[in-house]
Amino acid sequence: MAEWDLTSKIGTFLDRHLVFPLLEFLHVKQVYDERELLLGKLEIVKNTRMIDYAIDIHKQLHPNAAIPEELLEKRRKVVNELKIYQEETNHIRQIFESPAVVKQIETTRDGRMLLEFLVRNYQFNIEWMDSVYIFAKSQYECGNYLAATEYLYLYRLLVPPTDKNYLNGMWGKLAAEILMQSWDTALDDFNRLKEFIDSNTKELNDNVPFGSQLITLQQRTWLIHWSLFVFFNHPKGQDLIIETFLFSQQYLNAIQTICPHILRYLTTAVITNKQRPSVMKELVKVIQQESYQYRDPITEFVECLYVNFDFDGAQKKLRECEQVLANDFFLVSCLDSFIENARLVIFETFCCIHQCLSIEMLAEKLNMTPEVAEKWIVNLIRNARLDAKIDSQLGHVVMGTKKLSPYQQLIEKTKVLSLRAQLLTTNVEKKASANHPERVPYWGTPDF
């Protein structure tokens, strides 16, 4: 399954600590050689402060060899640096840990009020927060994610958005919450970071940490990859991934420009989500546009079914999808839901073409036995998800006549009227301006 593994692509957009769960998953699934994975882990962890973890990996690789002096020396250096950071921030941490300050932090979410309280009662200096940031970063690099989140939260609360480390602190807080699997808090951090990236442009503020469109695009690309941890673990993640990746043009542009492999996760979310009927059409357009850049069994399954109407090809791709999902860190939990919903979309598409269907033929298309297929169809009818009847003697499924309600007909006929009216208004204004350049629309602002 290494052919369809995306860890090497996704890992380039992740923090080193976020790569470790992916490598552990590959180790369990035995996708790659165990020694190669251990060497990869060692190479990554050597560039963090998790030296004890690096020593453990080295022992697994070389059980009978002595620990390299390089690692031992780095461990001593890290311990000394941590002692220095703790001493430098000791008086600040004592202030934050005092009962009065803890109560104030819990009762107010306003950073300005908290800062005024600290200055008034503890002669607090905002410049001390630089040391707090360094201390929080060192805790994160050592793997103490809980302490990192606590101090990065205070850092974000107290310093202004124009601070040089404000954006880095937001990224660090999100990473730490992901690694602690605090999905509600991680979603809040994701939304806050997304809003910060989207709102801060050079035109709005020259002091923001990034100003060019290219850097903004890079920031969005990193956020897309980090968000996979949140979207595939939070209960609302399936809705949010569709809203963010498919219907937010800025993020869809980033996917199409830099990381089309994210279409695997967007496609899975659409198939397993209840909103699928309303969004599948948009997804198919994107898959077709990007098929020259990226293809895998999951995107090809949709293409076979909705573009080529190749039911045999869709069935074959569905078997491949099962293997892909079972070996994907983010999608393994969606396996059963994906297979169930994929069979349902095959069935629905097939029913749109045929009025009377053989259960035996359907079972073959769905990769099921006739008995299991009949029970599955009965459950669909029973749960009001299918308008059909089963003729048990002939072994047929007879589809009902599908009619749109008057309400649905009205929606279908009027949903594009607003866009047409807007285009007509624009054309009229352009024509009027060309014929009478001296005229100003009545809503126009007069010159002062």
Automatic annotation (TrEMBL):
<dbReference type="GO" id="GO:0016282">
    <property type="term" value="C:eukaryotic 43S preinitiation complex"/>
</dbReference>
<dbReference type="Pfam" id="PF21357">
    <property type="entry name" value="EIF3E_C"/>
</dbReference>
<keyword id="KW-0396">Initiation factor</keyword>
<dbReference type="InterPro" id="IPR000717">
    <property type="entry name" value="PCI_dom"/>
</dbReference>
<comment type="similarity">
    <text>Belongs to the eIF-3 subunit E family.</text>
</comment>
<keyword id="KW-0963">Cytoplasm</keyword>
<dbReference type="GO" id="GO:0033290">
    <property type="term" value="C:eukaryotic 48S preinitiation complex"/>
</dbReference>
<dbReference type="GO" id="GO:0001732">
    <property type="term" value="P:formation of cytoplasmic translation initiation complex"/>
</dbReference>
<dbReference type="InterPro" id="IPR019010">
    <property type="entry name" value="eIF3e_N"/>
</dbReference>
<dbReference type="InterPro" id="IPR016650">
    <property type="entry name" value="eIF3e"/>
</dbReference>
<dbReference type="InterPro" id="IPR036390">
    <property type="entry name" value="WH_DNA-bd_sf"/>
</dbReference>
<dbReference type="Pfam" id="PF09440">
    <property type="entry name" value="eIF3_N"/>
</dbReference>
<feature type="domain" description="PCI">
    <location>
        <begin position="230"/>
        <end position="404"/>
    </location>
</feature>
<keyword id="KW-0648">Protein biosynthesis</keyword>
<comment type="subunit">
    <text>Component of the eukaryotic translation initiation factor 3 (eIF-3) complex. The eIF-3 complex interacts with pix. Interacts with mxt.</text>
</comment>
<protein>
    <recommendedName>
        <fullName>Eukaryotic translation initiation factor 3 subunit E</fullName>
    </recommendedName>
</protein>
<comment type="function">
    <text>Component of the eukaryotic translation initiation factor 3 (eIF-3) complex, which is involved in protein synthesis of a specialized repertoire of mRNAs and, together with other initiation factors, stimulates binding of mRNA and methionyl-tRNAi to the 40S ribosome. The eIF-3 complex specifically targets and initiates translation of a subset of mRNAs involved in cell proliferation.</text>
</comment>
<dbReference type="GO" id="GO:0071540">
    <property type="term" value="C:eukaryotic translation initiation factor 3 complex, eIF3e"/>
</dbReference>
<dbReference type="GO" id="GO:0003743">
    <property type="term" value="F:translation initiation factor activity"/>
</dbReference>
<dbReference type="Pfam" id="PF01399">
    <property type="entry name" value="PCI"/>
</dbReference>
